[in-house]
Amino acid sequence: MNKKELFRIMAAADSSMLRELAQPLAAKYGVSIVKEPAKTLAMIKLREPVQNSLFYLGEALVCDIVVELGGTKGTAVFLGDDFDKVSAMAVIDAAFNKKVAETAELTTVLERLAARRQKELELENGLYAKTIVDFQSMDQESEL
Which of 16, 26, 65, 68 lies 20 to 30 Å from 127, alpha-carbon distance? Predict the structure, then answer.
């Protein structure tokens, strides 16, 4: 599992679930905080599609933290101000960086979370699909 996918799954996961995954790792390997969790602002960069140029949309409130798990650093940045969630994310990141024995189990749990989230999104999209209007068919009806 690559970092982008790992953080995408963790960002969508529930804070309490991530804490349940991070606590045993912290207890077993020991966690020290290198940089305390803090609120900060991050610039949101977007690409303008017509000229294909980058521009800054604005700023967003994020939380960031750096931890060390058994001598290996882990970092996390998360949109919002949930210190518990960002701390758990950093511990899990450090565990993946350290390649702890529990990595396979963590991967399995996170993949199950991703699959559950995907099913929820498909169900929600299915509900929205029922309300989509086909404007071409409306034009054809008005011509009759």
Answer: 16
